[in-house]
Automatic annotation (TrEMBL):
It is found in: Cell membrane; Nucleus. This is acireductone dioxygenase (Fe(2+)-requiring). CDD domains: cupin_ARD. It comes from Myiagra hebetior. Keywords: Amino-acid biosynthesis, Cytoplasm, Dioxygenase, Iron, Metal-binding, Methionine biosynthesis, Nickel, Nucleus, Oxidoreductase. It catalyses: 1,2-dihydroxy-5-(methylsulfanyl)pent-1-en-3-one + O2 = 4-methylsulfanyl-2-oxobutanoate + formate + 2 H(+). Its EC number is 1.13.11.54. Pfam families: ARD. Signal peptide: none annotated. One of its GO terms (cellular component) is plasma membrane. The gene is Adi1.
Length: 139
């Protein structure tokens, strides 16, 4: 993807159309740009899940998403400018910045955005059960 021209990037436009990503905004995570920066960073790093997919497209900067493998061990995913990730509903994850302490990201949603994070343990939610069933079916 062309992060320098995300407003007009035909590849991004096609992804948004194909996946029905009808809503988006842009967030800058930096101590000078994000209100309540210290509190938000701690919240992002707390292991949690969402009831909807989490889609992030890195426009500037870099950071890490951490997810769990089938043995419940962490896998660190390095994200930098031009990268897009979709974390499925029900997957436990967390986010942190790297040593540059800066990322600008597009947040995409199907329909209206839902920001609610459910800290672990949250195994009784249907989204978690559906995710676990998907993993079992794939194995």
């Amino acid at each position: 993807l062309d992060a320098d021209n995300y407003e007009t990037d035909p590849c991004l436009k096609e992804i948004r159309r194909a996946e029905n990503y009808s809503w988006m905004d842009i967030v800058t995570i930096h101590k000078d740009k994000l209100p309540n920066y210290e509190e938000k960073i701690k919240t992002f790093y707390e292991e949690h899940l969402h009831l909807d997919d989490e889609i992030r497209y890195i426009l500037e900067g870099s950071g890490y998403f951490d997810v769990r493998d089938e043995d419940d061990k962490w896998i660190r995913i390095s994200m930098e400018k031009g990268d897009m990730i979709t974390l499925p509903a029900g997957i436990y994850h967390r986010f942190t910045l790297d040593e540059n302490n800066y990322v600008k990201a597009m947040r995409l949603f199907v329909g209206e955005p839902v920001w609610t994070a459910y800290n672990r343990p949250a195994d009784d939610f249907p989204a978690r059960k559906q995710y676990m069933k998907f993993l079992a079916d794939e194995a």
